Amino acid sequence: MTYLIANWKSHKTIVEAQHWLDEFSAPPHPDINLILAPPFPHLTALKQAASSHGLSLAAQDISPFPDGAYTGAVSARQLEGLVEYVLLGHSERRRYFHETHQDVANKVAQALSVNLTPIVCIDQPYLSAQLSAIEPVYWPHLIVAYEPLSAIGTGDPEDPSRANTVARQVKDILSVDVPVIYGGSATSDNIGTFFSQPALAGALIGQSSLDPHTFADLVKSSL
Ligand code: PGA
Question: Among 126, 137, 193, 222, which is least packed, fewest CB within 10 Å?
Answer without folding.
Answer: 137
